[in-house]
Write a sequence for this structure.
């Protein structure tokens, strides 16, 4: 077995591989004729962030079975090219959770006690004790946005300071929040009640710009904000303005939308603490990341165990060809239902029917969950089931030999929460076209591609025409218009209808304006925009 370490790793990481007899380990200083030449007979490639494992490089690695990324981000790895070649791509999410959580707590203390100013004034020869009277964390309300591994670690530590914890994460079961002493609440309520607010979510279209002029206006005067997640979660201009006005008491930022940080509205603001993305930069975290990755790679090469993969699990070419369209369909159906379930998700029921039920369904299952949890952090088609379990979400699967309605294979997803149930079914037509078959018990056939506007309305005359008129007034073209009405569903009130409209969007502003206009129509109950992308 040949392992190529393209970038420097810790001695402990190297030792994991060296313990294996007859394994050839190539370190960076031993690569003499270029990485491509070294990969000609390699089984595994270990990288950090500098090496670009692109399609061209992978062409020179015919025996390569796995690429290990020491860290979370895999932007430097062409996962699609790796999947096509049957190469598993693994990363190491969560290994730096404690490091980031400790920095978060440290930044909160730093803001509460004005430590940077105290240090600066002392070095300047001043004894400015009166102006440095701070606050205790005890008794303050900490709002945690995102209760994944890092958010949970922050909660555990904040409890020891006697803080009141309130959190928002629609992808965590209430039992997990309770175990960590966090009271779940709607996002707006977290914004309103928090004395300190910390962000621990991934970057998605829904979370980008989460902290903006509107959300800042709802917050307490003097709230302090910590961001050790992603810089793009914050509208920098809006936050800087709110700090200057005194609305926001301070901020501690470790991540930025453009790194390294050069020009910034935060420069010169005394009550803003800036650090150069050091959340995971501890000796222990880097050691843990390297050791975890080495163990994952070793276990895959020796035992075939796949952990923290970011692409598909191992399938034969024939098996993959058969299941791939349903994998894509399953993820799209999950994403379609993702924001339709009221309350925090507690249970996912997956029903397979027809030919789909007769084959390997693990990948279809994980793709479904991945779609449902797409706005959560570090979820992919390999680790989705494990993430769901970690978050206290129960999974149920059922298989039926025959599919109803004439389709060869049908997948149905049912999402349960304490507040209600939402369900949808779908199939694949013509070998590659994912189609919605029903939503909350209403039969409807619509494409699961592109930009969809999902509209619930009272089943009265004139609504369809009004929808078309409003979209036309905003210069939005209708690509497909699917209709359904409630004749038997218990999930939808009698006399309610459903429209799924596929549209061509000229701009985000036009779409937002059109949705706002649709919501003003008296007969329309709800409007939801779903972005599923193209096939």
């Amino acid at each position: 077995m040949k392992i190529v370490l393209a970038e420097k790793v810790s001695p402990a990481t190297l030792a994991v591989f060296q313990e294996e007899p007859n394994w050839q380990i190539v370190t960076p200083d031993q690569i003499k004729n270029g990485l491509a030449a070294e990969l000609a007979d390699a089984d595994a490639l270990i990288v950090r962030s500098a090496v670009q494992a692109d399609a061209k490089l992978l062409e020179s690695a015919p025996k390569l079975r796995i690429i290990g990324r020491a860290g979370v981000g895999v932007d430097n790895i062409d996962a699609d090219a790796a999947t096509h070649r049957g190469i598993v791509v693994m990363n190491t999410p969560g290994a730096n959770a404690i490091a980031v959580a400790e920095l978060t707590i440290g930044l909160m203390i730093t803001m509460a006690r004005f430590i940077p100013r105290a240090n600066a004034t002392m070095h300047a020869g001043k004894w400015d004790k009166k102006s440095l009277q701070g606050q205790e964390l005890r008794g303050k309300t900490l709002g945690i946005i995102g209760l994944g591994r890092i958010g949970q670690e922050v909660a555990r530590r904040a409890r020891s300071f006697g803080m009141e914890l309130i959190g928002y994460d629609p992808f965590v079961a209430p039992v997990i929040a309770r175990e960590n002493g966090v009271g779940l609440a709607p996002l707006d309520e977290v914004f309103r009640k928090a004395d300190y607010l910390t962000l621990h979510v991934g970057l998605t279209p829904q979370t980008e710009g989460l902290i903006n002029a509107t959300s800042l206006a709802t917050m307490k005067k003097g709230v302090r904000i910590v961001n050790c997640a992603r810089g793009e979660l914050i509208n920098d201009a809006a936050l800087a303005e709110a700090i200057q006005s005194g609305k926001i008491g301070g901020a501690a930022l470790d991540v930025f939308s453009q790194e390294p940080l050069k020009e910034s509205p935060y420069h010169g603001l005394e009550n803003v603490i800036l650090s150069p993305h050091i959340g995971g930069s501890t000796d222990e975290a880097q050691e843990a990341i390297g050791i975890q990755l080495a163990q994952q790679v070793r276990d895959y090469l020796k035992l075939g165990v796949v952990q923290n993969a970011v692409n598909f699990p191992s399938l034969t070419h024939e098996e993959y060809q058969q299941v791939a369209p349903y994998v894509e369909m399953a993820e799209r159906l999950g994403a379609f239902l993702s924001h339709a379930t009221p309350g925090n998700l507690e249970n996912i029921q997956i029903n397979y029917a027809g030919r789909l039920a007769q084959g390997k369904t693990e990948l279809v299952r994980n793709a479904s969950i991945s779609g449902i949890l797409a706005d959560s952090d570090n979820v992919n088609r390999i680790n989705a089931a494990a993430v769901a379990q970690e978050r206290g979400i129960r999974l149920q699967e059922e298989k039926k030999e025959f599919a109803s309605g004439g389709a060869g294979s049908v997948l149905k997803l049912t999402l349960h929460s304490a507040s209600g149930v939402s369900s949808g079914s779908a199939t694949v037509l013509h070998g590659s076209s994912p189609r919605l078959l029903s939503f909350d018990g209403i039969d409807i056939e619509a494409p699961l591609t592109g930009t969809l506007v999902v509209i619930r309305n009272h089943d009265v005359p004139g609504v369809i025409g009004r929808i078309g008129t409003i979209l036309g007034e905003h210069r939005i073209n209708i690509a497909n218009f699917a209709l359904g009405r409630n004749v038997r569903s218990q999930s939808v009130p009698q006399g309610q209808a459903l429209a799924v409209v596929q549209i061509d969007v000229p701009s985000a502003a036009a779409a937002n304006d059109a949705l706002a206009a649709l919501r003003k129509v008296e007969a329309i109950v709800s409007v939801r925009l779903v972005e599923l992308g193209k096939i």
The first strand starts at residue 2 and ends at 5. The domain at 96-274 is CATH 3.40.50.720 (Rossmann fold). The chain has a mean pLDDT of 91. DSSP finds 17 helices and 22 strands in the chain.
